[in-house]
Design goal:
- The structure is a single chain.
- The model has no long low-confidence stretch (mean pLDDT 91).
- The chain has one domain.
- The strands form three sheets. Strands 3-4-5-6 form a four-stranded antiparallel beta sheet, with no helix packed on it. It has a three-stranded antiparallel beta sheet with strand order 7-8-9, with no helix packed on it. A two-stranded antiparallel sheet has the order 1-2.
- The radius of gyration is 17 Å and the shape is globular.
- Helices cover 0% and strands 47% of the residues.
- Strand 3 and strand 4 form a beta hairpin.
- With 167 residues, the chain is mainly beta.
Length: 167
């Protein structure tokens, strides 16, 4: 799991500094959950005019520490939605770090790579906050389903986007 935005103790006063989220790895058992590790997740700064940005969804791709992350921001220009591939291998365990404010140069963050910028696809974007792996497709590829949250506004339709994840 991960925080949607920085925790209060991790929030920098300078808006030019990228927000620092925490990515938490738990071992879930029948009677207890145990924190295994915690990593620095560098959230991207949204486009000019952004009012709010966050990590809205994560899905596990495999047991080797590979994930997909859905980041979205909203601002004066509307929504910006980006999909990232993540790799946690090599990231510093920050579970004992009280604050991520300021320089985190000694910490290795989760590695992320932009997989898709939906704003560049000329799609009418809304508040995308959900993501799941769908059924297998012919040829062995997986489907990926994104869904928007209309915040209970009857005049805003829920959007579904479906993609093919190439193996």
């Amino acid at each position: 799991m991960a925080t949607e935005g920085p925790l209060q103790q991790d929030l920098d006063d300078d808006i030019a500094i990228a927000p620092k989220n925490r990515f938490l790895h738990y071992l879930i058992g029948q009677d207890q959950s145990t924190l295994i590790s915690e990593h620095l997740y560098p959230l991207d700064i949204g486009p000019t005019g952004t009012l709010l940005t966050g990590l809205s969804e994560l899905i596990t791709l495999d047991q080797g520490g590979h994930f997909l992350a859905l980041e979205r921001s909203v601002g004066f220009k509307g929504f910006d939605v980006r999909l990232y591939q993540l790799a946690t291998g090599g990231a510093t365990d920050i579970s004992t770090v009280a604050s991520l404010k300021g320089n985190t140069g000694g910490l290795q963050p989760i590695q992320k790579r932009l997989a898709l910028n939906l704003a560049a696809q000329n799609l009418p974007l809304d508040n995308f906050e959900g993501m799941t792996l769908g059924p297998d497709l012919p040829g062995g590829d997986r489907s990926l389903i994104l869904i928007s949250d209309n915040n209970f506004e009857a005049n805003i339709p829920t959007q579904l986007l479906i993609f093919r994840l190439r193996q």
